């Protein structure tokens, strides 16, 4: 079984959301099998910034969906988009 690299763009609900706190919430919300390898911040527009989350996980059916659903369930999150997904 292989591993999957995934880069996610997490959009906060507004400019007032503290991205450092959001990082902590994402770290706690992820499934145990998922390893977060990096966080980044991407300016969007008008002061809004997205949180970029880079993860590696087993190539197991449904684990990516579970990860996205758990992040979307966080109160401060507006949306989650997959920017890159590939086998490693």
Can you describe what's shown?
With 88 residues, this protein is of the alpha+beta class. The protein has one domain (3-87): Ribosomal protein S6/Translation elongation factor EF1B (Alpha-Beta Plaits), CATH 3.30.70. 24% of the residues lie in helices and 49% in strands. It has two helices and four strands; from the N terminus they run βαββαβ. Strands 2-3-1-4 form a four-stranded antiparallel sheet, covered by helices on one side. Strand 2 (35-45) and strand 3 (48-58) form a beta hairpin. The longest helix is centred in the first third of the chain and has 11 residues, at 19-29.
Features:
single chain, 88 residues, four-stranded antiparallel β-sheet, 2 helices, Transl_elong_EF1B/ribsomal_bS6, translation elongation factor activity, elongation factor, Elongation factor 1-beta
Class derived from helix and strand content: alpha+beta
What fold name goes in the CATH topology slot? Alpha-Beta Plaits
How big a fraction of the residues is strand? over 45%
What is the overall silhouette? globular
User: How much is the average pLDDT?
Assistant: 94
Q: What's the structural domain tally?
A: 1
How many beta-strand runs? 4
Q: Please count the helical segments.
A: 2
Measured as a percent range, the helix fraction is 10-25%
**Can you write the helix and strand succession as a string?**
EHEEHE
How many strands, which pairing sense, and closed or not: the largest β-sheet?
A: 4 strands, antiparallel
How would you write the strand order of the largest sheet? 2-3-1-4
Please state the second-level CATH architecture.
2-Layer Sandwich
N-to-C terminal Cα separation, in Å?
A: 11 Å
The CATH H-level superfamily is Ribosomal protein S6/Translation elongation factor EF1B
Radius of gyration: 13 Å
């Amino acid at each position: 079984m292989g591993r999957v690299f995934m880069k996610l763009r997490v959009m906060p609900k507004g400019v007032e959301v503290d991205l450092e706190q959001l990082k902590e919430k994402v770290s706690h919300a992820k499934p145990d099998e998922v390893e977060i390898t990096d966080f980044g911040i991407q300016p969007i527009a008008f002061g809004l910034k997205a949180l970029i989350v880079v993860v590696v996980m087993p190539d197991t059916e449904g684990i990516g969906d579970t990860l996205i659903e758990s992040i979307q369930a966080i109160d401060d999150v507006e949306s989650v988009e997959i920017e890159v997904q590939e086998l490693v």
